[in-house]
Amino acid sequence: QRWIVIYSPKANQRAQKSVNKKIFDITSKEQKSFYSICKQSFACEADARQVAKKFAETLQTTTINDMQITIIGRFNRKGRPTQDRQADYYTYHITGNIASTIAYRNNMLRRKGCFIIATNQLDYSAITDSEVIEIYTKDQQKVERGFRFLKDPMFMVSTLFLKSPKRIMALMMVMTLCLLVYSALELRIRRVLQANKATFVDQKVKPTSKPTARWVFQFFAGIHIIIVGRKRENISNINKIQLILLELLGKHYQELYSGTG
What we know:
By secondary structure, the protein is of the alpha+beta class. The chain has helices spanning 9-38, 45-58, 102-112, 129-150, 165-195, 213-219, 240-249, 251-256, and strands at 2-7, 62-74, 89-100, 114-119, 200-201, 207-208, 224-228, 232-236.
């Protein structure tokens, strides 16, 4: 595949709110974690520095400034010690300040402000990068409407929780294939209607030659298959408008909704 990375100022502007919120959440979490290790006592300076080093490696949006190891004398006996009394043992503590870094936010904004257009056409002479972008721009709304359709609560995709990246990628592939089938069916329905100069009712019960596949799916909801015995099937709740569309789509569609397909 040939990939084209596109930077969009509008996407960058839209991403600022979500990026700022995410940065704030991560920063708050890192600050709490730093204050937590500052309260810990260590038996030696090496242990304290090792913990501070490992913690610093986990930081994403912040850095530790002026990090030092302070030594505090401890006494076994209770009560206030005299001025000339030597400490029985010492504990080591991490001190310093934690500060936000701008680099992580900028990198995240750059990533959020870009998107990728992919094409299977590797021949630059057949289609240039500019032509790919032009085609995408022209059909962008169709693609976005399709994915908005797949994310509709009607399909319950939002109720799925996938932790593994491989499973997330697999679900994206399934959703993409569903979108291809959905788009192909919608195109077929519209072409059949236009070729026969026919119409289908829209949501306002008005005739249209360009119904969405989503609306056709909803319009066909409520049709039931009644099993009589073990072989015979009857189709119930199918109306005249649905039958006309099935007839226009062809014999195979008619058979599926007649109990013989």
